[in-house]
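re: the backbone from monday

yeah here it is again, tokenized this time
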């Protein structure tokens, strides 16, 4: 599943960059591609623990 999300994110950024280079830019496609990329980054980074997680757990105890 993680590999699928990474592939979708790479595809979205590729589409956004292609739209910026093309002579007729479509802002809607670019915005949708960036939103897909940001949503994918949010999903992938949700599993990453915080640096301060250990300190917060010690403070609670």
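seq for it, each position gets an aa:
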């Amino acid at each position: 599943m993680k590999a699928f999300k990474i592939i979708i994110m790479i595809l979205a950024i590729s589409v956004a960059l292609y739209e910026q280079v093309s002579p007729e830019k479509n802002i809607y496609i670019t915005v949708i591609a960036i939103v897909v990329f940001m949503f994918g980054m949010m999903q992938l980074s949700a599993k990453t623990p915080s640096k301060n997680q250990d300190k917060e757990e010690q403070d609670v105890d």
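The chain is about 75% helix and 0% strand. Residues 5 and 40 are 6 Å apart (CA to CA).
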